[in-house]
Specification:
The complex is a heterodimer of chains A (about 350) and B (about 280).
Chain A (H helix, E strand, L loop, with lengths): L1 H21 L3 E6 L2 H19 L2 E6 L2 H10 L8 E5 H9 L29 E2 L3 E7 L23 E4 L4 H13 L8 H13 L3 E2 L4 H7 L5 E4 L1 H9 L5 E3 L6 E3 L1 E4 L7 H12 L1 H11 L12 H6 L4 H5 L5 H19 L2
Parallel strand pairs in A: 1-2, 1-3, 6-7, 6-8
Antiparallel strand pairs in A: 3-11, 4-11, 5-8, 5-9, 5-10
Chain B lengths: L3 H30 L1 E4 L3 E7 L2 H8 L1 H34 L2 H12 L6 H12 L4 H8 L13 H26 L2 H9 L4 H12 L1 H17 L2 H7 L6 H11 L3 H29 L4
Antiparallel strand pairs in B: 1-2
Helix pairs in contact in B: 1-13, 2-3, 3-4, 3-7, 3-10, 5-7, 5-11, 7-10, 7-11, 8-9, 10-13, 12-13
The chains are: A alpha/beta (about 350), B mainly alpha (about 280).
Chain lengths: ~350, ~280
């Protein structure tokens, strides 16, 4: 009897083991939602699943939610690979939550611009976007050329800027601060300059797509917003145009990290390799209207006019993510107390 | 009389669930609230500080948020009481045939998801929302009223959402008031109003207290509705805590604020139960 029991147990284990290996491996990806998420699905997840036979399950998070999740599940993450903006990747990297990326496992690593790699290869920049000026050319006849154009009295009550909780919020604050003579250590001039603007803004948007309906209903004519979101809305028939201010747009760098402790290390590297591949980057750039980091990618004219590219890219300000991570709580607290109050 | 042991056994399942899933996680936050957070590098291990708490009482922004939260809790509770008592009275003392439909109407909104209900209020209250458009079309106002991102919006949304809790509590309490006592008072020459104010109202005090505590605590800890109707500028404690945790990643500060909120809730419950007991002559 005992013999039979042992046999049965062994057989169960064996069958279980076989079933597990036959089942496709699952990779958990934290990604932003909206048009970004759809483009990730079409350009990266679909070819990745086809090539590896693994399945990707997507968790929709913004950067700070992913960073909070990584800290909460330190060492035993329930995410295998994640998108985060560079300041948050720098933060989790400094907290020791990021796996060092193994460039030898990334066949496309040599084609990526050298500045894409984060400190100690703790993360890699996968695309380039920006905060710039978006306007409705039906209302705004002369294209804006400066961040200060948002102050033009003719747009009083007809403009919108983002809350500091979103990327465009602190980026526009920093851009204004620089124009007014401030530095990254001293944002007093920026805080003082942005207060009247924030008080008069139609709303302080917290979700990028909130701005779409504001333009749609004609509530605003000009905004500090994202070219890729504007292009997606314009493709659906909205009258929108992108202007890069002469003082420079502020660059947004969505990165990828592998959380330390994931059991899918190889698979996660393969996914990042897919995201960095020339085909993947080309597909994603054209679809989501975002700049690429793979030097082999040639953007179409349509995309090149919208994303930071060539002259506008050279002029774009990329703020050191470590400095942003260090200062953003302070900027946020000052914003809450001195700007939005 | 029930034996103590039987009583303990009866509450054991709930007590265990509360201890395991509420008390222990909350206590685990306690050390965090004394931790030090350095933006850019994370929590410093082994460093303990009171600063997270002292900052709450010295920073006038936090104080403003705390007073706003308490004021909101008070206003919403009063609004629910004033709106809910007549309705509860009608349900408890009105025609029998009205009871079920009325209770269904009270409970019905609770079947909808909180996000959906809050979003409904956004559609109604926003600058170009239903209410403002109607008033503008009628020529009553020329520029939209500010109904969102301020006290008005939160009051409207939260009162609507928590009214059912108050009404259900009050119905049970009013039903428990013996009709005989009211009749006795009437026989002794009391007017209907006097019967209500000196008999029915004090005897339903336990229900008023329970409903008020429930609504108050739910209001000061509400997150979803204040986030949606308060927006990025009109913050209450729950939304500030959420921001500290999820946006600034400053968990020590968020934990300290959470404990402050918890202590405030406990203090208010304790205080109000003492006051009500005295008022209802139960002390």
């Amino acid at each position: 009897m005992r013999h039979m029991l042992r046999f049965a147990t062994a057989a169960t284990f064996l069958c279980g083991g076989l079933a597990a290996s036959a089942r496709a491996e699952e990779l958990v990806l934290a990604s932003y939602g909206g048009s970004f998420g759809e483009a990730i699905k079409a350009c990266h997840i679909a070819p990745f699943e086809k090539a590896t036979g693994a399945t990707v399950s997507v968790k929709l998070n913004n950067s700070s939610q992913t960073a909070a999740a990584l800290r909460a599940t330190k060492g035993n993450p329930d995410l295998d690979v994640a998108f985060m903006d560079d300041a948050f990747s720098a933060q989790t990297n400094n907290e020791g939550l990021n796996e060092k990326l193994d460039r030898s496992k990334l066949t496309n690593a040599p084609d990526v611009i050298p500045t894409a790699w984060g400190k100690n290869d703790g993360y890699v920049v996968t695309m380039v976007s920006a905060t710039a000026i978006i306007y409705d050319p039906k209302v705004v006849k002369t294209p804006p050329t400066s961040w200060l154009d948002l102050f033009d009295p003719q747009y009083a009550g007809k403009y919108v800027i983002g809350d500091i909780s979103g990327t465009s919020g602190w980026q526009f604050l920093l851009a204004l601060n620089k124009i007014k003579g401030g530095t990254l250590e001293n944002v007093d001039p920026g805080i003082a300059a942005i207060r009247p603007l924030a008080q008069g803004s139609t709303v302080l948007y917290t979700q990028a797509d909130q701005v779409v309906s504001l333009f749609e209903r004609g509530e605003v004519a000009i905004a500090a917003w994202y070219p890729n979101n504007a292009a997606a809305a314009a493709a659906k028939g909205l009258s929108l145009a992108v202007a890069y201010p002469k003082e420079g747009a502020v660059g947004i760098l969505p990165t990828m990290v592998i959380p330390k402790g994931t059991k899918k290390l190889d698979l996660a590297h393969k996914f990042i390799d897919q995201v960095l591949s020339a085909e993947g980057q080309k597909c994603f750039s054209e679809r989501a209207i975002i700049g690429a980091v793979n030097t082999k990618v040639q953007l179409s004219d349509k995309v090149a006019q919208i994303v930071p590219y060539g002259e506008t890219l050279k002029n774009t300000w990329f703020v050191d993510p470590d400095i942003v991570a260090k200062n953003i709580p302070n900027w946020t607290r000052r914003w809450q107390r001195e700007v939005a109050r | 009389m029930m034996k103590t042991r039987t009583g303990l056994m009866l509450i054991a399942p709930l007590a265990l669930v509360l201890a395991g899933f509420f008390l222990v996680p909350v206590l685990m936050l306690l050390p965090t609230s004394f931790g030090e957070y350095l933006p850019g590098s994370g929590m410093t291990p082994g460093v303990w500080t009171l600063e997270n708490y002292t900052r709450i009482v010295t920073d006038d922004y936090y104080l403003e948020v705390i007073w706003r939260t308490l004021g909101l809790g008070l206003f919403v509770t009063l609004a629910c009481l004033v709106l809910g008592y007549p309705l509860a009275y009608l349900i408890a003392r009105g025609p029998q045939s009205w009871r079920v439909p009325l209770i269904l109407l009270v409970v019905f909104p609770m079947m909808l998801n909180l996000v959906v209900r809050s979003f409904g209020w956004i559609a109604l209250l926003t600058n170009r929302g239903l209410v403002n458009n109607l008033l503008i079309d009628l020529g009553l106002i020329s520029t939209p009223l500010k109904l969102m991102f301020n006290l008005t919006g939160l009051m409207i949304g939260l009162t609507h959402i928590y009214l059912p809790f108050m009404v259900l509590m009050l119905v049970a309490a009013i039903q428990n008031v013996p009709r005989d006592v009211e009749s006795a008072a009437a026989t002794l020459g009391s007017s209907r109003i006097h019967v209500f104010t000196s008999v029915t109202l004090p005897l339903s005090a336990p229900g008023i207290l329970a409903g008020s505590i429930l609504v108050f605590v739910l209001t000061i800890s509400a997150l979803v509705t204040p986030r949606m109707l308060g927006g990025p500028t009109y913050k209450v404690m729950a939304t500030v805590i959420y921001d500290e945790y999820m946006q600034l990643l400053d968990w020590p500060s968020g934990s300290a604020l959470s404990f402050t909120l918890t202590f405030m809730a406990i203090a208010v419950i304790w205080l109000s139960s003492r006051l009500t007991k005295r008022w209802a002559g139960m002390a």
